[in-house]
Two pore domain potassium channel family protein
Amino acid sequence: MTKVLNLLGVAASLVLITSISFEALTNATFSGETIYTRIQLGVCLYFLLDFLLLLVTARDRWRFFSRNFILILLSVPYAWLVDYFAFDFSSETLYVIHFLPIVRGGIALAVLVKMVVSNRISGLFIVYLALFFAISYFQTLIFYVFEVRVNPLVKSYPDALWWASMTVTTVGSNIIPVTTIGKICTAVLAVVGMTTFPIFTAYITALVHNFNEREKKRVRP
C-alpha cells in the first residue's frame, strides 16, 4: 500500500507542477482564487489523508509522527489559505508559497525510488537526477516570473531556459538578473550545477569500471 500511496503522491505533484507552470507561462498574478489554488487544495487534502493512513498503519505511531511531522507542514494548502483569509502578499511572494506542497511530492518520489530500486547507488543516482531537473525547472520558472517584467533581456520563457542552461553548466549567460530573487536563483543554480555534475561523472565512471571488470572476468579462461 505504501508504494501505491507514494506513486499517487508523485502523480499529484505532477498535477501541481503542470498547473503552476501554466499560470507562470500565462503571466498570471497568482493572487485571488485561481485554478492552481483549487488544485492545490484537492492535492493537499490527499496528502493529509495519505499521512493519516500511514500513521494509522504504522507500528510505532508516535515515532512515525515525530519523524514525519514535516510532511504535515508540506501538505498544507498555503495558496488556498492565503486566498481564503485574504492575506496581503505580493504576487511574487505568493508564487514562492505555491511551491511548498510540491516538495511533498519530491519526498514521495525519493521514498518510492528507495522502495523500487534494489541497488542503493542507482537509487540515489535516480533521486539526484530527479532533484537536479526539478530544481533547475523550478528555478527557471521563478526566474522568469520575477525577471520578465523588469529585465529587458528576458522577453519570453525560452530566454529563461537559455539562462538556466548556461548557468547550471557554469558556462555563464549573457542574461544578467536585475532582481534580488533573480540573483539568488542564479547563485543557487550555479551551485546546483557545480555539485551535481561531479556526481553524474562519478556514477558513470563507476558503471564503466564495473562493466569493464565484468568483461575481463568473462573473457578469462
Remarks:
- The first helix runs from residue 2 to 25.
- The radius of gyration is 21 Å.
